[in-house]
Hints:
Six copies of one chain form a homohexamer. Chain A is α/β, with parallel strands linked by helices. In chain A, strand 5 (190-195), helix 8 (206-211) and strand 6 form a beta-alpha-beta unit. In chain A, helix 3 crosses helix 11 (301-324), helix 6 (137-144) runs parallel beside helix 7 and helix 10 (269-277) packs parallel to helix 11 (301-324). Chain A contains eleven helices and eight strands. In chain A, 34% of the residues lie in helices and 15% in strands. The longest helix of chain A is centred in the last third of the chain and has 24 residues, at 301-324. Chain A has an eight-stranded parallel sheet, sandwiched between helices. Chain A binds chain E through residues 15-18, 20-22, 75-82, 84, 86, 254-255, 268-270, 273, 299, 301, 304-305, 308, 311, and chain E through 57-59, 164-166, 195-202, 204, 217-219, 222, 252-254, 257, 261-262, 264-265, 296-297.
Amino acid sequence: xxxxxxxxxxxxxVSGNVLxxxxxxxxxxxxxxxxxxxxxxxxxxxxxxxxxxxxxxxxPGARHGPRQMRDLSTLMRNVHHVSGLxxxxxxxxxxxxxxxxxxxxxxxxxxxxxRFVGEIHAKxxxxxxxxxxxxxxxxxxxxxxxxxxxxxxxxxxxxxWDRYFGESRYTHGTPFRRAIEEKLLDPKRIVQIGIRGxxxxxxxxxxxxxxxxxVIEIEEVFxxxxxxxxxxxxxxxxxxxxxxxxxVDALDPVxxxxxxxxxxxxxxxxxxxxxxxxxxxxxxxxxxxxxVAPPFDPSGNTALVAVTMMFExxxxxxxxxxxxxxxx
Amino acid sequence: xxxxxxxxxxxxxVSGNVLxxxxxxxxxxxxxxxxxxxxxxxxxxxxxxxxxxxxxxxxPGARHGPRQMRDLSTLMRNVHHVSGLxxxxxxxxxxxxxxxxxxxxxxxxxxxxxRFVGEIHAKxxxxxxxxxxxxxxxxxxxxxxxxxxxxxxxxxxxxxWDRYFGESRYTHGTPFRRAIEEKLLDPKRIVQIGIRGxxxxxxxxxxxxxxxxxVIEIEEVFxxxxxxxxxxxxxxxxxxxxxxxxxVDALDPVxxxxxxxxxxxxxxxxxxxxxxxxxxxxxxxxxxxxxVAPPFDPSGNTALVAVTMMFExxxxxxxxxxxxxxxx
Amino acid sequence: xxxxxxxxxxxxxVSGNVLxxxxxxxxxxxxxxxxxxxxxxxxxxxxxxxxxxxxxxxxPGARHGPRQMRDLSTLMRNVHHVSGLxxxxxxxxxxxxxxxxxxxxxxxxxxxxxRFVGEIHAKxxxxxxxxxxxxxxxxxxxxxxxxxxxxxxxxxxxxxWDRYFGESRYTHGTPFRRAIEEKLLDPKRIVQIGIRGxxxxxxxxxxxxxxxxxVIEIEEVFxxxxxxxxxxxxxxxxxxxxxxxxxVDALDPVxxxxxxxxxxxxxxxxxxxxxxxxxxxxxxxxxxxxxVAPPFDPSGNTALVAVTMMFExxxxxxxxxxxxxxxx
Amino acid sequence: xxxxxxxxxxxxxVSGNVLxxxxxxxxxxxxxxxxxxxxxxxxxxxxxxxxxxxxxxxxPGARHGPRQMRDLSTLMRNVHHVSGLxxxxxxxxxxxxxxxxxxxxxxxxxxxxxRFVGEIHAKxxxxxxxxxxxxxxxxxxxxxxxxxxxxxxxxxxxxxWDRYFGESRYTHGTPFRRAIEEKLLDPKRIVQIGIRGxxxxxxxxxxxxxxxxxVIEIEEVFxxxxxxxxxxxxxxxxxxxxxxxxxVDALDPVxxxxxxxxxxxxxxxxxxxxxxxxxxxxxxxxxxxxxVAPPFDPSGNTALVAVTMMFExxxxxxxxxxxxxxxx
Amino acid sequence: xxxxxxxxxxxxxVSGNVLxxxxxxxxxxxxxxxxxxxxxxxxxxxxxxxxxxxxxxxxPGARHGPRQMRDLSTLMRNVHHVSGLxxxxxxxxxxxxxxxxxxxxxxxxxxxxxRFVGEIHAKxxxxxxxxxxxxxxxxxxxxxxxxxxxxxxxxxxxxxWDRYFGESRYTHGTPFRRAIEEKLLDPKRIVQIGIRGxxxxxxxxxxxxxxxxxVIEIEEVFxxxxxxxxxxxxxxxxxxxxxxxxxVDALDPVxxxxxxxxxxxxxxxxxxxxxxxxxxxxxxxxxxxxxVAPPFDPSGNTALVAVTMMFExxxxxxxxxxxxxxxx
Amino acid sequence: xxxxxxxxxxxxxVSGNVLxxxxxxxxxxxxxxxxxxxxxxxxxxxxxxxxxxxxxxxxPGARHGPRQMRDLSTLMRNVHHVSGLxxxxxxxxxxxxxxxxxxxxxxxxxxxxxRFVGEIHAKxxxxxxxxxxxxxxxxxxxxxxxxxxxxxxxxxxxxxWDRYFGESRYTHGTPFRRAIEEKLLDPKRIVQIGIRGxxxxxxxxxxxxxxxxxVIEIEEVFxxxxxxxxxxxxxxxxxxxxxxxxxVDALDPVxxxxxxxxxxxxxxxxxxxxxxxxxxxxxxxxxxxxxVAPPFDPSGNTALVAVTMMFExxxxxxxxxxxxxxxx
Lengths: 328, 328, 328, 328, 328, 328
């Protein structure tokens, strides 16, 4: 009986052997573009963009991120060359377009994104989002987070600042402070990887550490090595539900120049891929890859890096979907 | 009864007041992306790409043209500011994706494109194509041309060369020689506008003139002015069926640097827009805008120019559609 | 006696024959950078930036405009080659830095800019502002406008839209609707030059025309020629106080690709320079040059064009200052 | 008998129908690269580069000009499309490489270039040089100039300044002052076309005018039109020997962004081509195209414009060569 | 006596102390450009380009590779800083230009390249080729390969796919499958280094492994380290004849963004240099460096990396030449 | 008494929480711009630019370095995230503008820079300079060096060549040979880190080694690791006075493409940061960061890397200032 209710439609990427990878309308991973309303019963994992940068305090442009990421994502293929995972066989994946946003109204946008993601979540669909600046993680977590959710957070910055210009509580530097305050994340099960760069004040680090966040600064990343970081990250997040947020500025700017707040001295893509692969088997509730700002990298290399990280994450989410059988 | 069989679906661009213009999956003019099979009965004008540059003898990259043109086309709006024409009200327009192509097989590609366009044409749908290099006009004309079809051809080059490297009969320098030989165009009703640049031999111009083509070299364009060129072009093509082919290298390279064979000293976009507007009322059977090579203009300005020309042409095609009532 | 109260400090650009033009900290036109508080009594014309793009509905980046414009402004010299005007001899000009802004709070920014410009205005100093997106003209006009102020407005867009996304009243597409509603401009003494590009609806043009604004669309600009446009603009604004607002998208995108909403088919820099020169002798209360978005033109050519327009305007403002003798 | 001893070797460009234009080692116009010593008796017109920018007071990079110009020159063809002139049939043209230069020693370089050009001139070969900054015209004129030589000079700047930094007499702003002082040019037979941009002091224009130079500022260029400028230029230079110096900054920066001292509001390539064509029939002793600075235009469009101007000039030089029969 | 007839001409790079490195016509390593026919008896190692990308299934542009590589190769010097090898002293090296190609005919090009390389090989000259896309290795191997030839192959991809689009047997993804089928390589003596990236199907790896190819995926490269990879590579290729093929996409895209099929997570240039140096002493029959696509990296950094790899390889080839004394 | 109340003025960066980091006139680290004459008594560490590239033998553009470095330096913050050092609390730092230079006179420039730095040094102010090409280190050392000064020198090149073009003794390849000859450095206390790239002749390395310079070529850097290099560097320079000179070409070109003489295979920013941090506690007399050539990296990433190295160095200089209490 369950079988009869299962997907009537099976979504798979358009093959590069039928339509060349540079051809066709670019969707994430060359998956079908479907409307959430029409296809909700069929989708296991929804890929979508959040084209917004209203929380950006320095270089804007992340609103253009999803489009460039879709373009470059057409270079992705079907089988992970190390794990052998085949995400499009393990789960029914689709591109459901972009969330609604309001480019000139921050609070309106937070509400729109939360509502959109909430609808996905209500249908038991796993989310894989492409930013947008890092503030977009907040409405996602408002929709799918909770105090039982841990987080593996790749970033140059902790994004746990409090205020900006005295008054502003919502910027791309504050999402996780707000998320912790709102009980959308369990701070003791948060690990932040790759943190670096000058501080405004010596106290910048204190609040997060006081909440129990485990911060692995970039120097410790290099000391521990990929395996050591993975071990520590898995220890911190444990067995419960986990969200993964990947800010491309975790990477050294040579890999991701197209971003809002570059910090030199970051990790390599090889290290980042190794760390994501090391998260295999965790109970992942969703993920995002954020802060791709195309105007600062028209070559598209930053977006290529970002969508490869999306593919790495998708492999894990798809396997996780099978194992935890969200739909049946 | 006819009315009942008429389009059940009405296609209109996504409004920029609902989804910002930089958001969403980029289709031509933000129109719905539909499959030809599903929607043939509903469509009046089909927009599609031909992502191919296998006929290019110098700088390749036009295979990437349609995707960048779709991206930039999201800046287009609904109403022509001079004529007041509203193409999306006058005709049911849709993006039907890209034609099949084979990036490493020239003859196979010519066959695939011809077949694809033939199917559109068989359903009485007007075609507006985005190249691709200029050789793509040949399979289009094989599908929709005939010895009763004239052509308004904007270009720096006549594209009526015979052979290349001794043997090769199909390059982006030969489509209109082949088309005339194959009786897909009436040479006496062809006008070529903007021709310029050094010649290989003094005889380069002879064949076309001998066929009766009216060549308006760029110097004559400047002498006649926009109105004079329009008058002459209308005189040449007369009242019969007319195809419009717009090679972006007709424009000066400052307007269209992203192209395969730039020639300095070309026309301005203002002049080109004026000339296209002057074609209003002709019996247009289709049009193309070709030779956008994004790797040579990552800024997208060339593509913006090209899609604005597509919008100019779409206004004419849509009005023409209404007047000649292809579907009823 | 007047002499005794006159400026003790005389501000002049650093000579390129002492410090090469590529050297030194870049201020507008290589003028001294002074604090308004310290130097208010000495300054006749204040140049400043408004580094903000919170009103931008499409491509952001104008917040980076003032810095790139300062950089390129170091290429400016002292004497206008046609009029012979020497702005730095006619008036005491200085760079007073950037206005306060809040990159993530629109209303807060409008208030900060208005207050800053208000202080300048209160000291009888003429303002020449570098944007920033076009919404920055609104707080400037709130500080210095009035129903006796006309405007010469160079732009591709009327910027008199009403709302965006249903609710948003303040975007870079609405400043002059708000300004007219708030009686900061006399609509019957507004002339808009260079308007073009597709419309959202056929009604887009109506509101402005109903207020009495004189719109010279780009086609009419080409028909009238520079002299004709100047004659008409002077007729419209008459003898009273006039503000000049120059949006770089009035120019064709080949001259100003680094902008938020490019529209092809615009005016040339030669035409724009001719029109500005034609405004000589008007009673100018201030001016701005806006919508330079450096991420879309890292070459700096857009900024070079913009600062040359600032120099053209400065010549007029400086002469005007002398004639109307605001300080004595 | 002398005829029998005439060129045993005939130099022609490699055909694009044998080796594609993007292939092969790039020489000017795809001509053979020969050593002056070996081939002096065979050459009528020598094309060479002067890779040097030691006279540049602002943005350097013109030392890289000749190489990029050679690269783009491979797009040139054989027959002028308007005049029908075939320069490679009219004269034996060759690429003789670059002059010696010393990148860190100005005076040494002036001597090296003068000696190199002097050797060419001694063999009765016409020179067509690719700069390099504009100071390179001085050693060329020292080799081939004289008080019977007039000049048609396209430029945004008069390049007749006296000193820089108090002491420096040789910069790219001074070559023609030095040339006149050294009696290498007859100032009364010099016409400068396209001059514009702010002045350092009101006196900047005086020295040149006092010498009798005819300065056609850009505004007058637009007033006179191409034909009027040509008429005036021919009147000024008369029937005697004439040198042509083309600084790419004569053009508007949209056509030639890759240059050291861009000035907006310049001429178009169409206008420049028209003016060069109008010089047909003059007794030309040589020409140069200078100030291409590739680091400021990696796209190569500036170089493409520059080499097309070289081709335009080469047509005139080749015809002139035939008519004035320098070799026999 | 034979010795006396040996090279009358000794080819050495033009010194940077005589002609600056940015000056002069760019040949590979600033070596003399000679015709094969004229100089065959003098040449030990021939450097040449194969300006062709007709086998490219994604981003074209490698046809422009040789020219940009020549340009950047002028930065190379004479002595290897680690090994002390002086290739230009050990062997007579020259730039013999580009092979013939036909940009629009794949099979014709394969034949032209094979013939050209065959002529070189017939004269006992070692070949060092600059691509072009990777399909160019096939005609090279047809000229110089055999079932006694092993290969060290640096690449992100195995390039042993079978067909493309059902029918096409020759693309840049198939050269080594064809070469093995044609007995141009001994698969058991092939080592592929750096393989990575998503697979189309789980079976992608099987064919090559079944032939006995040793594939060292990038993860194993990082595990083994440079020394370990070198040891394994030498074990695989043994003492017989060996060809080296270096695809720049073996490198991480930050080092080589200008390529057709970038894959993130690749090796560094330091690792690649170390591995090439580790091949010293092998019996090398030739080498190529391929897949440089300049339109995707106008900065030239990719080409700089590629030509430095050519210099590394040239040191080995030159030493090998001396040791195996091909000419005597 | 006034003397006892030393610094009446305290210089601190403008806070990013008051003026966004992209706003305002860009000074080094957002410090106040002061005149040396006015503020000499208040300043402990002077940051300044040397906008000059007259010693450059290949790709020019370093004259534009200081301006782009100031722009990017606005991204720096206050507290070092590893050491916790707060340079702006430890020392009174200010931007004193650029040194005088003469872009077309090498010797004049050397004199101007020496005089300017000499004045700073005479006032017991520590210098942190931003180049400019590497020749600028020579006049700095003439002002502050001596035979008791050692040097830690990061570079791809030893810069101890003797002559260029036979005669020229001053280029960016010779500063440290001249400095040693002039007894401005103790060669036995010089360590050069990161040296690599082809040599002109096998003797290139000899002179420096004969003087006793310790050269750590890049291969040894990788072998020793950061800690090993630091240990060796500290051993070499010992306890005496030390200058630090950081040429950005020490880094791999992916981190610093905007430079005059790129050499692939360099160190990472992470390694460089580690090595600079390892110099903590040395008796530092000054430092420079040189060879940033913006025309070759308009993205600004090279400048971002360079100014982050300046911040790393400033932390050490400021601590050193406190410890050695130069002012009291």
